[in-house]
Amino acid sequence: MAKRYTILCACGSSIATSTMVAAKLNDLLQKNNIEATIKKTTYGELDKEVKQLNPDLILSSTNLKEDFGVPCLNALPYLTGVGRAQLDQQILDILKELDK
Amino acid sequence: MNFSVLISPTRDFQDWQDCYQHLARFLEKEQKVKPGFWESVLEREQNFPTGLQMTPNFGIAIPHPSDPTLTLESTIAVSVLSHPVEVRSMADPDEKIKVSVVLMLALKSTEDHLSMLEQMMGTFQNEELIQQIFTLQEPKTIQAFLEEKLGKTPAR
Questions:
Q1: Is the ipTM of this complex over 0.95?
Q2: CA of A4 to nearest chain B CA: how many angstroms apart?
Q3: If pLDDT is split at 50, 70 and 90, which confidence band does B156 have?
Q4: Contacts of B90 in chain A (CB under 8 A)
């Protein structure tokens, strides 16, 4: 059975940009038949969430300075639409690599 | 979606803080948000700024509070600036960008945020619409323009 992933979407308030990021991510995963639990969070809660959920990937709307030991992508293209296809591909590549 | 746009008659500000505070107080005065809204916006902005480069020569900022329960009625307070102000970029807070339109989000639900952000990104990446907004003078005209472009449900 294919792996079920856990992906965290983080922004400053977990309501605005991360909602948009989570929605676009969900579109991508559905299109590619990838199963994942998507959780929205704030930058402040990120450290705690990473420890609790042990996610496979973090999408953030800013460049994160901290290293969480988890692949992390700047998902701003899902907000603005600029560079969306490239981000889609980066996510798919990371998830594919994890499933090996 | 159901929301209204408030247009600030003031279009000239010293810096981003001056502008954001003015818009937050405007929302408070119009009773669209609860007291404490400005403080919540400021706190978020200092930690996680909201400047977005939309096209190579046009930027917007979308300041909003970290606490959505401070909003009473979903509203966007907007200032179309006569001179751009410098803000920090959301993508990279170490980077500064110039923004010419500030849209302060006072939205109640997750759905409202999603719908509003999608409409905003479409509108503010369209060169024609960007040019058009700067030709409008009257706050009422700008308000009608933005309410239509950002997908306000027409009144029956």
A1: no
A2: 25
A3: low
A4: 17, 61-62, 76, 79
